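Dear colleagues,

As part of the handover before I leave the project, I'm documenting each prediction I ran so the next person doesn't have to rerun anything. This entry is a single chain, and its sequence is reproduced below.
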Amino acid sequence: MSAVAQVIDVNAAAETEQELTDGFHLVIDALKLNGIETIYGVPGIPITDLGRMAQAEGIRVISFRHEQNAGNAAAIAGFLTKKPGICLTVSAPGFLNGLTALANATTNCFPMILISGSSEREIVDLQQGDYEEMDQLAIAKPLCKAAFRVLHAADIGIGVARAIRAAVSGRPGGVYLDLPAKLFSQVMDADAGAKSLVKVIDAAPEQIPSKAALDRALDVLKSAKKPLIILGKGAAYAQADEEIRSFIETTGIPFLPMSMAKGLLPDTHPQSAGAARSTVLKDSDVVLLIGARLNWLLSHGKGKTWGDAPKKFIQIDIEPKEMDSNVEIVAPLVGDIGSVVAALNAGVSSGWQAPPASWINEIKARKEVNIGKMSQRLLKNSTPMDFHSALGALKQVIKERPDAILVNEGANTLDLARGVIDMYEPRKRLDVGTWGVMGIGMGYAIGAAVETGKPVLAVEGDSAFGFSGMEVETICRYELPVTIVIFNNNGIYRGLDTDPTGRDPGTTVFVKDSRYDKMMEAFGGAGYHVTTPDELKKAVDEAMNSGKPALINAVIDPAAGSESGNIGSLNPQSIVKKK
């Protein structure tokens, strides 16, 4: 053999022995390196094999029936863990389905990454009609916090790292990561690939407010005669539970929790003003916002809701642009909630004067009146049930199971449950949040069950359940400890509307006396049909004790609901009468 032939043989052998990796494995390795343990998604071209390989590499892959529900699961995973939840979708239609959840996550400040396969750039850019062709990056950019595309296998590590950091740093939000189909099959040297991966360090660094800002805020708070603290879901996300509790109890200031902040301190805490919401918003003079925004949920900080008493607002938020968004913030505290509240605690550690007894007694008196009125409605044992009597039964369930996670959506089902069902532990109430969007129910229930291992009680309006109801099959397939209660009043708001022409059902009416419990039974779960509060309580206890999937069809009086629950004023009314 010639020397040239020998050299060729040696080189060929070296190439044969060289260890290679590809885009599939680099994506998985990058996620694992950064502590990602779960992927939510819907399999299909071009990401089917990515899901299979991720599962083989030890990542838990939860496959859904619709991408929006998978995205909602990833979003709530981000809220509960402070790590970005991952949603994996196919291109074009699948990407668009996931995009709704991504936009909702961004609005709610939940860290989430939507990873979608996509068509090849050279074909998309020339609009040559590729399979599911769409310029996904351009579409995603306006609807999320950041968006990136990776074209080369060597850049996967950086792409994943940038997505993670963008999702959790500062004000958390949704990030889109575009992975064209050809990227997955790109091959490179395994050692070089391993070196290209990036472990994100200090992705969400502390942001500490200045001493001047703290002194200003404390001076304003000390001047208050009727102070109030409002806790938002940002306070729950921060997981600064002990610092927040210490500050509230040290100052003696009444607190009002927004719905997903319920349980940071128990709703039964003596300083809770939840049962006197109208009074404290109207009569307070200094309001400290912790992780809450003065958006529509708080009437933008002005108008009749806030009364005539002059208000001074102190706001804690990590985003400077949030300040003065609706009204003047006289003492902005820009920083992460844990650091800011810790600094406030240091400032009130000695010499703090409790709020005037007259303010505390005013709130206490209003609470007693409102709780007394509500208790009578909750104890009503009529057949069919109304919303209050049904919620009265579920109020007792959560009292007996404070570690259970409550997922809640609907119109009346949501609005009334916020005020009726007390929460006792943080991050146990998950609902529609800032946008008020329906359809989060099954995604949130699945994400909460997977991430925490805790039992989940999903309380759904029959309309809200329809957006994600097919995921009961997913719940059964993964044998998750999820109990669903559907408040079935035969329609949206009520089940009594009619078509004036007599041709069709009313626009808000569903099939009368539907049996949603049979739907769950079809997939192997337990189904219950109940008509009284006692039956409802018994069914929920049995279902949750079993730890297995269950659905309870709770029959509600079709006439019991009201238009849009507590936000009917947002529904425009026609002033034109047709002749």
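The mean pLDDT is 94. Residues 163 and 348 are 39 Å apart (CA to CA).

All the best with the project,
I.
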